[in-house]
Amino acid sequence: MAGKKRVRMRGVKHTSKRLEDDLLDRSKQLAENPGLIRPACAGNCRKCAFDKSFKSIDGLRKIIDNPEALIKEASRFGGDDLVRAYAGTVSLSAAGSIPLLASAKLPGGETISYAVRGTVKADKLIGCQYFDDPKLRMFLYNDMIKKNKLHLYSFGDDVVCSDKPNMPEEYLEDTFWESPYEFPNDGFSCGHDASAVLEINIKSLGTTISICENCAKSVSSLAYIVSRLSAVDPLDDMDVRVRHKYHAPGEKDYESITGDVLKKYMVGALTDSSLIASVKRSKMGDLKDSDVSAYVIGSKNYGDNLDEFLSALSGDDHEMDALKKFLESNPRAIVVKNGKVSEALNALWENDWKGIIAAHTDMATAESMGDVSKNQPLPTLIAAYDKFKTAGVSATLPEFKKPGPVTATADRLAKAYKAGGAELLKESIETKGLKNGKIRTVEASFMMACGIAEIPFKLTPSEKDLADYLKPFAKNLIDADGTRYADAMNTYLIASASGERV
Asked: For position 3, what pLDDT does the model report?
């Protein structure tokens, strides 16, 4: 038991026949063999703390069949609690009956019945009368263990005592396997690599219990382990930590659980799953808020190796280019669940959108986009890139003041093609809600001039004929350099019968 437990006494009641038989049977076993309650030694004590008690118990052999004499020993003021509890318990066998029982409420809420004898404390009587119960018998030893700074382990039919932490492997198996975990090969590890793993290290055994975040349950494994252990500090043989992936290069990859958090975990106020989640949330937040280069995908930490991190990502070329160029000159910690570059960009976008766009294009383009912090990264990056490329071409061509609708459309499409070929021209086509037949015809003529066979909207027969007629004029405008561009535009406008002029 982790700490000192108090037993609350209730009233007395008449015994049931079965309970009486069980208590009498255990009393008889102890009368015949007091060694049943003597802990086995697993330490190196110069003198056993139990020697004096059991020497006194051996001295009770001469009155072992005398219930009155045994009750007198159980009532001896200031006597050895273990000796008095033994005398009171074996007096039951000597008397051959149990007239009345008391009931006590245990720390876990369970109510237990026991026979009152002499002036022995309830917890000592319960511990002795239920010596075959691994948990209840701990009440008999707790005070002596704490007084002599010993360690006691109760499991199965055994009670083992040591002057230092020395947990038997059978004890760990017996207590931990009361938990709901079932691990491969009856081991103490789920065997999974995860972003966060709970580890309970039993130092005297050299054994570590490992439970990943996906296997962790709403129980405290530590509470199971200390449930039948008595010591001044039941945790002096254990290290509890949560190993995690959320650390920068050079930092430790685990968080030690200590202080009040450890105490809450020991008594079950924190569970395996809640402890892991708490540490994971805290360390992930610390990492994201740091000004370091650190990259994590799922359960793999890439440290500050940007090339390896990017190689593990997949996604659109615009996204990859923007992320790479931005991270090369801006240290950031990125934590994502999967290998999608879009998730990495989304993690940065709200705060770093302008820098990301500038890395992909230039700062002038980024500032010209307005506030796009709430927009999706990919379409925004594409629009910015198109704007950036078109701006470079536009600088070498005339800028028309107050252009009409046909002029504006032809100018936009011609410059788009010059900046990015047929692909960029296709992206510049306005296909939705295009009701103006003249504009449909202009757009169709430029697509035909660029070799785009599939027109994304319907043309009337007359519009189709005009688009075919305008095709060579559109081609001429696309091919025109800065000195011929205005003349080529005027030629196209005259051919389109738009009435516009530059």
From this structure: 44
pLDDT, residue 254, reads 96
Q: Cβ(275)–Cβ(258) under 8 Å?
A: no
Q: How far is CA 460 from CA 312, 410, 436, 443, in A?
A: 50, 20, 12, 14
- Distance (Å) of CA 381 to CA 216, 312, 333, 350, 390: 41, 21, 21, 14, 14
Q: Which residues pair with 314 in a beta bridge?
A: 340
DSSP codes of every residue in 98-158 = --EEEEEE-TTS-EEEE---TT--HHHHHHHHTTTSTTTTHHHHHHHHHHTT-EEEEETTE
pLDDT in tens, 205-238: 999 999 999 999 999 999 999 999 999 999 999 9
d(CA 180, CA 174): 13
Q: Which of 473, 369, 457, 498 is nearest to 414 (CA)?
A: 473
Task: Give tens-digit pLDDT for 108-147.
Answer: 788 999 999 999 999 999 999 999 999 999 999 999 999 9
Q: Quick one: which of 502, 274, 247, 265 has its CA closest to 398?
A: 502
Q: Are 464 and 444 in contact (CB under 8 A)?
A: yes
CB 493 within 8 A of CB 407: yes
122-129 and 138-147 helices cross at what angle (nearest 10)? 120
Alpha-helical regions (H) of 361-404: 363-368, 377-394
Q: Are strands 100-105 and 196-202 parallel, antiparallel or unpaired?
A: unpaired
Question: What pLDDT digit, counting tens, does each position of 39-97 carry?
Answer: 999 988 889 999 999 999 999 999 999 999 999 999 988 889 999 999 999 999 999 98
Span between the terminal Cα atoms of the chain, in Å: 93
E strands present in 324-429: 333-336
Question: Which residue reads 């440290």 in tokens?
Answer: 303
Helices vs strands, H then E, count in the chain: 19, 14
Q: Which of 356, 363, 347 is nearest to 381 (CA)?
A: 356
Q: How far is CA 128 from CA 16, 82, 199, 253, 500, in A?
A: 20, 8, 36, 47, 109
Partners of 9 in the beta sheet? 104
